[in-house]
Amino acid sequence: MKTKELVYAALFAALIAVLGLIPPVPLGFIPVPVTAQTLGVMLAGSFLGRRMGALSLIIFIILVAIGLPVLSGGRGGLAVLVGPTAGYIFSWPLAAGLIGWYSEKIWPKARTWKLIAVNLAFGVILVNLIGASIMAWITNTSVWAGLAGATAFLPGDLIKAVIAAVITMQLRSVSPIEEQAQG
Questions:
Q1: Phi, psi of 72 (to 5 degrees)
Q2: Among 22, 40, 101, 140, which one is most buried in terms of CB atoms within 10 A?
Q3: pLDDT in tens, the chain (183 residues)
Q4: Residues 95, 123 contacting (CB under 8 angstroms)
């Protein structure tokens, strides 16, 4: 892996940490708050591609594990990684990797609507399926209750999917995926 790729991955891990400075919105009926950090997950995959996108989220999870308060609400540490939000957090590298894989695949003919679709499929549906299922298991509730509670995230996640796709298309010429396509 090149130094430039590591820098991109570290920068996106930092971007996701900065998105964590936006205060979380607790919902009350589900122990997982609404955060802006899933926007960073979608951006990492769409803009960086599969390898660097997934790596940026692995770096981020390592920062959380060592106790840095980089999650929304200033949370961090191992307790967060075994609590109700664990499934959501651990799904992020997979989501970024799959978003990146698809983005790389369609890059020469990428359109905003295609990136919105892939962000919805992997950055919203996949993250919520994994996150809600693991949350239900950890909190000893039914999976259906977890999935029903996760529907509260859908309006905001839809907006984040659109924002990530638009930003990626606007910055397309400087994306590492563009460099791969050209070289």
A1: -55, 135
A2: 40
A3: 789 999 999 999 999 999 999 998 888 888 888 899 999 999 999 999 999 999 999 999 999 999 999 999 999 999 999 999 999 999 999 999 999 999 999 999 999 999 999 999 999 999 999 999 999 999 999 999 999 999 999 999 999 999 999 999 999 999 999 988 887
A4: yes
Nearest-angstrom CA–CA distance, 54 and 111: 22
Beta-carbon contacts of 117 under 8 Å, excluding residues fewer than 6 positions away, are: none
Distance of CA 51 to the CA centre of its chain: 14
Structure tokens at 155: 């309006």
Beta-carbon count within 10 A of 18 CB: 13
Q: Measure the CA–CA gap between 16 and 10, rounded to whole angstroms.
A: 10
Residues making up the chain, counted from first to last: 183
Find out whether 85 and 120 touch, Cβ atoms under 8 Å. no
Strand partners for 71: 75
Among 166, 159, 160, 172, smallest CA distance to 104 is for 172
Contact 76, 63 (CB under 8 A): yes
